[in-house]
Design goal:
Layout lengths: L1 H40 L7 H16 L3 H26 L7 H15 L7 H30 L3 H22 L29 H18 L1 H11 L1 H6 L4 H28 L12 H11 L4 H16 L1 H6 L5 H34 L1
Helix pairs in contact: 1-2, 1-14, 3-7, 3-10, 3-11, 3-12, 4-5, 4-6, 4-10, 4-11, 5-6, 5-10, 7-8, 7-12, 8-10, 11-12
């Protein structure tokens, strides 16, 4: 019996180590596989495989880190991904899939665009007002998903996907069918509503520090507070959490709303610091909410790791143009991201079957 418990503990510790390094393994595998696509796109022979890998790394470096200008352009992509990554991480930790972070992000954008038009305000009032408005818009929109999940038992994936399209068309309706807009876009927000930028030739702005602060606050909330313990317990085992006296439905609603608050905040700061207005979305979703799911998956739903994960995805997106200039199709970026997501998702599948196996073993003892 003692040897069995020791073996079980050693297996758990080994799995914990592998689990911690799994994101790095996923990145390495994605790069190895992508090297073959680069090789084929540049008509290299198999002997030049490592030249293809080198070309890929050079393109990413030149498109993201080579000089100050491209570095700040990369931060333009990174900033919203931190917000949506953390937003999705909260939902994942509670056992939920908030596919609606995209719609909540867009509602935060709309709120910021409208509040930003208010005249005669000080920046010390206007910017916080935009931040609060974005949080309320995103959280309020997410509460619809939470209410339907808790009260009617409707799957949050279905409702959140539908609400994404409702948000998209609602914004297009306001922009294209109301007198509030000019040339298929809202007017530019007031200077008092603009979050300062780092340099004049880039749209990267100080809202990235808000995103990093949010990541640290959510990490503290999940790890060191009673609320965080309840959210994690619901995500780990809802039945056991309910048996222990935790209100599962209330925590599910809280997780979805909190996720929406952060996504809405990301949308608001994206307008206040980057876009300065909202154009029609006929071309489709902005994409940050959906990419945020990949960020959270790679980060293993750790809010702090979402910062690094967002930097990786931001660097890949920012370097797509440089890849084209170097003869590498920009679709390689999507391939790398897809391989990372598939590899990380496989870890969740393995974990699911491991848990089922463990439960069966307990029942047969």
């Amino acid at each position: 019996m003692g040897e069995k418990s020791i073996n079980e503990r050693s297996k758990i510790s080994l799995y914990s180590v592998l689990n911690a390094f799994f994101p790095f393994i996923a990145i390495i595998v994605a790069i190895i596989i992508s090297g073959f696509f680069v090789m084929w796109s540049k008509n290299y022979s198999i002997a030049k495989y490592f030249n293809a890998i080198q070309d890929l790394f050079v393109s990413i470096w030149q498109g993201s880190f080579q000089n100050q200008q491209v570095f700040f352009q990369m931060l333009e992509y990174v900033t919203p991904l931190i917000f949506t990554g953390v937003a999705n991480a909260i939902a994942f930790r509670t056992g939920l899939f908030n596919i609606g972070a995209e719609g909540q992000f867009m509602m935060g954008m709309l709120a910021a665009a409208l509040i930003g038009l208010l005249p005669g305000l000080s920046p010390f009032i206007h910017i916080p007002l935009i931040i609060i408005g974005g949080m309320l818009a995103g959280g309020g929109y997410a509460s619809i998903v939470g209410f339907l999940k808790a009260k009617r038992g409707i799957n949050e994936v279905i409702t959140s996907i539908m609400l994404n399209y409702i948000a998209l068309n609602f914004i297009n309706l306001i922009i294209m069918r109301t007198p509030l807009t000019v040339r298929d876009a809202t007017p530019q927000i007031m200077p008092s509503a603009m979050i300062p930028r780092f340099i004049s030739i880039s749209k990267a702005n100080y809202s990235i520090f808000i995103g990093i602060l949010v990541a640290f606050l959510i990490y503290y909330l999940l790890k060191h507070t009673t609320i965080g313990y309840e959210l994690r317990s619901v995500g780990s085992n809802p039945s056991a959490a309910e048996y222990g006296g935790i209100n599962v439905k209330r925590n599910m609603v809280l997780a979805i709303v909190l996720s929406g608050v952060i996504a809405g905040l990301g949308g608001a700061t994206h307008v206040s610091g980057n876009l300065l207005k909202v154009s029609n979305l006929i071309g489709g979703f902005p994409g940050f909410g959906l990419d945020g799911m990949a960020v959270a998956l790679l980060a293993k739903s750790n809010p702090l790791a979402c910062i690094l994960s967002a930097c990786l995805f931001g660097a890949l997106n920012a370097s797509s143009r440089m890849m084209q200039l170097n003869g590498i199709p920009k679709q390689i970026v999507a391939i790398i991201q897809a391989i990372i997501i598939l590899f990380v998702a496989s870890d969740y599948i393995i974990k699911y079957f491991e848990n089922r196996k463990r439960k069966k073993a307990i029942l047969h003892e």
